[in-house]
Amino acid sequence: MRVTFLLALFLSTGVAFASLASRATAQEASSSEMAAARNLFRTGLAHAEAGRWEQARADFERSYGLARVPVTLFNLAGAQAETGQLVRAAESYRRFLQEANEGRAARYRDAAQTALAELEPKIPSVRLEVAGLGENDVLRVDEDDVARAVLGIAYPLDPGEHRVAVLREGEVVVEESFSLAEGESRAVTLLVPSVNVAPDHVALTEVTTETPDVTTTETPRERSVARSPWLWIAIGVVVVAGATTAIVLATRDDASPYQGNAGVIRFELGGAR
Q: Which residues contact 225 (CB under 8 A, 6 or more apart)?
């Protein structure tokens, strides 16, 4: 694949400049942006010729960001493939095939189709299975949050080391690291801990339950009788009667301060008479 890419890369130098000029209006790029895109394209070619593919990819990415020229995208796809970004490279080739339908860029359609056909079988994939995923849990692959629709299907990833994790309220609750070789397919299964939420009635019980008085020796029957209003009415009558009796006895035992027969002093609620 590298031979096909390099041939198209170096032959496309002059074509790219012509394409940049012809598409300036369509892409609504300013003259300064066009000049910067052209310079980045040139430096990207120089890095690619020297085998500095990381730098070449960076320059082609920036050039394409300034002016969306199909030939630049074609070279970007090759640089992405050379640096292990197989998934992005395949998408760049597909986008190039959609955009390069006319003009000089269309000359590289065959090269792009050949490169894409060679690239696709090399893209590895993982089949993710996650049990116990909560409604608000977040599924993350490497540094990207992914939709739950990826579960149970072949999910394309670049070759190398990867990490899948489930986050709950921003915290990782389970994770798994794995590696993929070119063309490899594998499955990764995660078991998510259940959500531990205390039932509402537990808190309610703690609030409403009365704390027993450990200093009392009342039995339930005694507590029931003691709380009866009739008991306290009866006790009030006894207290009044007792007070009256004591006063009467004391009056009878002592000499009356009044002349005449000994009287009886009755104590009633509200005063004495």
A: 231
